Amino acid sequence: MDIFKSFEISASGLVAQRLRMNVISSNLANIDSTRTPQGGPYRRKDVVFAAAPASSSFHSLLGAELDGKLSMVKVLDVVEGNRPYRRIYDPGHPDASAGGYVLLPNINPMEEMVNLLSATRSYEANVTAINAAKSMARSALNIGKV
Amino acid sequence: MKGIDIFDPAMKLLGRALDFRALRHNVISSNIANIDTPRYRGFDVVLKGELSGDGAEDRLVRTHQDHLGGGGMDGIRPQVVQSTSSRHRMDGNSVDVDMEMTKLAENAIQYEALAQSLAQKLSMLKYAIDEGGNR
After folding, report:
1. Nearest to A139, CA basis, from B32, B110, B126
2. How far is CA B88 from CA A44, A55, A71, B97, in A?
């Protein structure tokens, strides 16, 4: 049984959660951005996670179908939401419309912070899984030591 | 006399138990990695099958070609089953992080206990071999 498969699986979790953290940071940093390269105010971004099979083709050759149920996590996409923008009245703003209204990103800092906490905890859970796998692999190495 | 087998059935049993624990670790890691994946339902590993008698050598019925001989544990094989829990979050994910972390810790300790057992057996074997030479 391949203990190193679990490193791959947990590492995919780490990568996914870190990407999620980066997207959250991007949202928080751009909470007041009224311009983007695509034109228009910044739109809140979110990640889409999917479970991807973790079995390599080698394993399927061996007919080890037990491994077919293992899943890594893959970030399919970073998508922009379609929440309507916030409209506030600020005629002095450089990007104010003729009526004096400015469109701002509709990003709720509380929501982003909660997501950030959740991403941190998930990251830590994956780190614990990797540490457990490491210590298991090390004690397996000690079996043959005489 | 029947073939001398220095690896007694208990050692093979320990090996298979280690395989089971390693597979279980992979499954639990998979659950933890997918903690935030929508519509993901967790998996676990159970041992299915029945004990087939007292393991006398002439009654080794192998139910699967991958099974090792020895012991009455041949009919037992690990199986990955999906959680049937109906409790899930709004995004359809049913992984309970507390349960998974607990299972992870317990499984790791069991694995290390089995590895230690196997190491003890081998060192006893080595002791027997060494002392025999010193006689």
Report:
1. B110
2. 26, 26, 18, 12
The CB density around residue A107, as the number of other CB atoms within 10 Å, is: 22
The residues near A48 (Cβ < 8 Å, ≥ 6 apart) are A75, A76, A77, A78, A79
Beta-bridged to residue A71, according to DSSP, are A53
Identify the band that residue A58 occupies on the pLDDT scale cut at 50, 70 and 90: low
Q: B44, B35, B75, B91: which is closest to A124 by C-alpha?
A: B35
Contact A136, B22 (CB under 8 A): yes
Residue reference for tokens 């590492």: A11
Q: Which phi and psi angles does B11 have, rounded to 5°?
A: -70, -40
Residue type, A81: G
ipTM: 0.73
Q: Where are the beta strands (DSSP E) in A54-100?
A: 71-80, 86-89
Closest-CA residue to A14 (of A127, A117, A133): A127
pLDDT (tens digit per residue) in A5-37: 889 899 999 999 999 999 999 999 999 999 999
Residue with tokens 């540490």: A131
Contact: A10, B32; criterion CB under 8 Å:
yes
Nearest beta carbon to residue B112 from set A125, A129, A139: A139
d(CA A58, CA A40): 49
Two structure tokens written together for B98: 């507390």
- On chain A, the residues whose CB falls within 8 A of the CB of B34 are 13, 49, 51, 71, 73
Give the up-direction half-sphere exposure of residue B117: CA atoms within 13 A in the CB hemisphere.
15
B37 to A72: CB separation less than 8 angstroms, yes or no: no
State both tokens at A121: 């905890």
